[in-house]
Amino acid sequence: MGRTAATPGLGIGLTVQVAKKQRPDQDARIDAHVRVRAFAAGPRDRVPAVDIALVVAVDVTAERRDAAVAALAGTVGALPDGLSYTVLGGGGEQCYPLRGRWALAGPDDRRQAAFSVGRIAASAEGRAPAGYTTWLAAARELFAERALPVRHLILVTDGGSRGDGDDAARPDSALSLELARSEGTFTADVIAPGAGWDPVPLLAVAKRLHGTAVSSPDDFAPAMATALARLRRVRSPELPIEVTVRPAVREVTLTETAPHQQRLEPDRVQDDPHRLEFRTHQWQPESRDYLLTLRADASNDPLGVPLQLAEVAVGGAVEPVVVRWLPSGTAADTARISGAAGRDIHTMNVSTQMRTALNHGYTALDLDRRERAEAQLGLAVRLATEIAADWVLDEVRKVARIVDGPQGRVSVGPAVDPGTVRQGLLNITSGHPVELPGLPVSGPEIRCPDCDHPAGPAAGFCIDCGRRL
């Protein structure tokens, strides 16, 4: 079943599905499918421009400078009235506004900005690479002066100023330390023209600062427009998912499986050791799917009776995780994959393994490790064939030949374009949700006949006036 509740700017629908029959082990694993559906609530369909502070940092080499100037001119010429913004270029120097730290978009400002961005300098012109850390630190200082609800950086980079400190794999690197300082202060998208960049630090910036990383042609204006349109659809910059568990539950993990794959790190709620808070970010009207995994000790629990192991809460909507431990020798072994909930959970687990293998395969190609690449891409193909994830087959065909899909056999040729590999690494992270037949597709939005307030298809009562729907 599902519950609907309200949070400012959003209505929240929550559904939790779990296989009810489980085997009682001392270390029993219980998987639950959590779907959070957010729909617009309130009179506005977009974030007001006056609530947005935007920093555009352009880091391109001299060969792309002319294209960058043209793309910037088109971008600043289309900014909505009232938006606060700054343009950085070169080694992190401010290119616009010419006076002060922030410009306010408007008719006169747009004309001046479209002309002034021609001053932007290319990266590494007569100086050492600035490093991505420089751009993040500059943005953080600027945002400290602009306490607006939405603070966002768009970093356009072809890798021209990647520095020695931009090692995302080391927690003590300059980039990792700056990302830790910036997280929670602003969000960021990365747009990467060309293919000469290292994808690892770009993905680290997008992941830690809750944005996206996409490849782009030299004319990055369409990618900028897409990023800005998505930013204005964000109704809630942050939305925590709370999971409260019984003392017998020893381990809790929550993995987003769609639209992106990422394992969420929990924060413990003060004074409640059995409650965890998983922070999620940049919510617009959409649906997200999560795999909730619990490890529980069932040795002291009664058999055959419903037991609530956990409670999931999002934006005021609450759903329980209820199971029944079956006696030994029953059909418990097959219960985990039976029914709609079991099929969905199986698909989500396969999808997670498939995306991981695809990413590992592309990474191995980037490091010129052909045997590992074939093994991982083959695993991704086999799993994709099982759940009909055709987009994975398309990604593999860009770099390898599929010999036998069901058996997971692929062949990597003698020459693979490095640019294709690097663009693929970004593309793998950019969505591709898996179809889950176990939950019904959300129906059209309904509205209260008394007060005309919007409500989700699963709503039983209007969240504004309380009328039964």
UniProtKB/TrEMBL annotation:
Domain VWFA, chain residue ranges per copy: 53-213
Gene3D superfamilies the UniProt entry points to: 1.20.120.1690, 2.60.40.3670, von Willebrand factor, type A domain (3.40.50.410)
Pfam families linked to this entry: VWA_3
Protein name as it appears in the record: VWFA domain-containing protein
Organism in which the protein naturally occurs: Streptomyces sanglieri
Lineage: Bacteria, Bacillati, Actinomycetota, Actinomycetes, Kitasatosporales
